[in-house]
Design goal:
Order of helices and strands of chain B: EEEEHEHEHHEEEHEHEHEH
Oligomer: heterodimer
CATH class of chain B: Alpha Beta
CATH topology of chain B: TIM Barrel
Largest interface: A-B, 30 and 30 residues
Order of helices and strands of chain A: EHEHEHHEHEEEEEEEEEEH
CATH topology of chain A: Rossmann fold
Number of domains of chain A: 1
Largest sheet of chain A: 8 strands, mixed
Strand order of the largest sheet of chain A: 2-1-3-4-14-13-12-9
Distance between the termini of chain B: 14 Å
Shape of chain B: globular
Radius of gyration of chain B: 16 Å
Radius of gyration of chain A: 15 Å
CATH superfamily of chain B: Aldolase class I
Distance between the termini of chain A: 13 Å
Number of helices of chain B: 8
Strand content of chain B: 25-35%
Number of strands of chain B: 12
CATH superfamily of chain A: Class I glutamine amidotransferase (GATase) domain
Chain lengths: ~200, ~250
C-alpha cells in the first residue's frame, strides 16, 4: 500500500489519482499507524519550506517518517516534499529540514539569465545515471516544474537527474531508499506516470 | 530549456461544456471527448451567470478533470474570496483564475499569493478595442466598462502579486480569425510574468502568430475542433516547424 503523507500542504488528491492510475492502491493519511504499515511513502508538497517542517512537527510525523526511512521503506519526495529531505533551507530565512540528504535548499540564480522566477512550465530531465526509477524514460522526456528554490546537493553522487533554467540544478536525487523529484510527476502526463509506476514497482 | 505552452480553455455553463462567441454561450458539448494527453495545461472556467445554476455542478467538473488529467489545471469563474481559492485547490486545481473580483479588490491577489504562492494566481483580463483604437478592460463577463487600459491593469495586477496574466480579446473571442496580437504584445511587453493569450485562434498559424507577434508565453484555445489528441499534436508539430520550442 502506498501512503501519501498528508501534512496539510499540497495537491494530495492529484498524487493519489496518479498512483491509482498506475494500478496501485493509495491512501492519504497522517496517522502514524498508516505510515508504519506503508510499503511505499510519498511526501508531496506545494508551499513554503518553513510551513512544511512546522506542519510535520505539529502533526508528529517526523518520528514515524524517520522510522520508515531507517527500515528501508522507499520514500519519494515531490517538489517541497523533496526539499524537506535536505538538511536545511534558505527560503525566507534559515530553517532545518529532515536532514536525510546532504543538501541545502537555495534560490535558483537567474541573475545572469534574467529568467522569471518561479520556474513554471515544461522542462527537460537530463539523466545523469541509470536507475530502475528511470526505466522507460527516454532522454527527451519533459516534466512539469513549478518552484523558486532547488535542492543543492553537496553529495553530488546522489544527483541522478538535472534540469537547466539559467543554471543547472537537481531534478532527481536518489540516496538508498530515498528518492526526490523537483518536478511534479503527477502533473507530467505519460512520463510522470511511468516514473510513479517505477517508484511503486521497481524500488 | 523551458517550452512554450499550448493551453486548452474549457468554458462550463452549469456543469456543461460550452463554446462561446463574443462571450455568449454558443455550442453545447459533453466533456467525454476530451483527451488531455498532449495539451500542456487545462484552464476550466465557470461561465454560469449568477443565479442561473448550481456551483456544485462546476466543482464536479473540476474534480473530474483533476482526477483524470495529469496536467496542470487552472480553474476560475466567479472567484470572490480566499475561501473560493481554497475550495478549488482542495478539489484538485493547481491554479486559480480571477477576473472581476481582482479588479474591484486587488488586495485579494496579494492575499492569495501570500497564502498559496503567486504561481497559483492567474489574473484574467478581458478587453475590447474602443472606436478611438484604445483598449479598455471590461469586467462582469465582459459587460462592465471600467475606463482602465488593460496595460495599466496588468502592471498593477503584477505588482499586487499575480503569477500569470491571461489576456482575452472580447472582440476576437470565438471568431476563429486569429488573436488580437496588438493587444497581446502591449501586455507582454509591459509585464515580466508569463502572459497567456486567449480569444480567436482558428488555425495553427494563429498559434505561431500569438507567440511571435503577440510575444505570448502560452497560447490558449477554446476552439472545440482543437480538442483532440491528433489536432493538438499536429498543432505542436506545426509550431515546431515554425520555430516555436514546444513539448511534443
Amino acid at each position: 500500500m502506498v501512503v501519501i503523507v498528508d501534512y496539510n500542504l499540497g495537491n494530495l488528491k492529484s498524487v493519489a489519482a496518479a498512483v491509482e492510475r498506475v494500478g496501485a492502491k493509495a491512501i492519504i493519511s497522517n496517522a502514524r499507524i498508516d505510515i508504519r504499515k506503508a510499503d511505499k511513502l510519498i511526501l508531496p508538497g506545494v508551499g513554503a519550506f518553513r510551513d512544511g517542517m512546522q506542519n510535520l512537527k505539529t502533526l508528529n510525523l517526523i518520528e514515524p517518517l524517520e522510522e520508515a526511512r531507517r527500515k528501508g521503506i522507499p520514500v519519494l519526495g515531490i517538489c517541497l516534499g523533496f526539499q524537506l529531505m535536505a538538511k536545511e533551507s534558505y527560503e525566507f530565512g534559515h530553517h532545518n529540514g529532515l536532514g536525510w540528504l546532504n543538501a541545502s535548499v537555495r534560490k535558483i540564480d537567474t541573475s545572469e539569465s534574467r529568467l522569471p522566477i518561479p520556474h513554471v512550465g515544461w522542462n527537460d530531465l537530463i539523466k545523469l545515471k541509470g536507475s530502475p526509477f528511470f526505466e522507460g524514460i527516454p532522454s527527451a522526456a519533459l516534466f512539469y516544474y513549478v518552484h523558486s528554490f532547488y535542492v543543492d546537493c553537496e553529495d553530488t553522487e546522489i544527483v541522478i537527474g538535472e534540469c537547466e533554467y539559467g543554471m543547472k540544478f537537481t531534478a532527481v536525487a536518489q540516496s538508498g531508499n530515498i528518492y526526490g523529484t523537483q518536478f511534479h510527476p503527477e502533473k507530467s502526463q505519460y512520463y510522470g506516470l511511468v516514473l510513479l509506476k517505477n517508484f511503486i514497482e521497481n524500488t | 530549456m523551458i517550452r512554450k505552452r499550448l493551453i486548452v480553455v474549457l468554458t462550463i455553463n452549469n456543469g456543461v461544456l460550452f463554446r462561446t462567441r463574443n462571450f455568449i454561450p454558443d455550442y453545447r458539448y459533453t466533456l467525454n471527448f476530451i483527451d488531455a494527453w498532449s495539451v500542456d495545461e487545462i484552464i476550466v472556467l465557470d461561465i454560469t451567470r449568477p443565479g442561473e445554476g448550481n456551483k456544485e455542478n462546476f466543482y464536479t467538473v473540476v474534480e473530474e478533470l483533476a482526477t483524470k488529467c495529469f496536467v496542470p489545471l487552472a480553474a476560475g469563474g466567479s472567484v470572490r474570496s480566499i475561501e473560493d481559492f481554497r475550495s478549488l485547490l482542495k478539489i484538485g486545481a493547481d491554479k486559480v483564475v480571477i477576473n472581476t473580483e481582482a479588479f474591484s479588490r486587488p488586495e485579494l491577489i496579494t492575499e492569495a499569493a501570500n497564502t498559496f504562492g503567486s504561481q497559483c494566481v492567474v489574473v484574467s483580463i478581458d478587453a475590447k478595442k474602443r472606436k478611438n483604437g484604445e483598449y479598455e478592460v471590461f469586467t462582469e463577463y465582459g459587460n462592465k466598462s471600467t475606463n482602465t487600459t488593460p496595460n495599466d491593469w496588468a502592471q498593477k495586477a503584477q505588482n499586487f502579486g499575480a503569477g500569470e496574466i491571461m489576456i482575452t480579446s472580447i472582440d476576437h473571442d470565438g471568431m476563429l480569425e486569429g488573436y488580437d496580437n496588438e493587444l497581446n504584445r502591449l501586455i507582454s511587453q509591459n509585464v515580466t510574468i508569463p502572459v497567456l493569450v486567449c480569444g480567436g485562434a482558428g488555425k495553427w498559424q494563429d498559434f505561431v502568430d500569438g507567440f511571435i507577434f503577440g510575444q505570448a508565453e502560452a497560447v490558449c484555445t477554446t476552439n472545440i475542433y482543437h480538442f483532440t489528441e491528433s489536432s493538438i499534436k499536429s498543432a505542436k508539430r506545426y509550431l515546431e516547424k515554425n520555430g516555436v520550442f514546444v513539448r511534443i
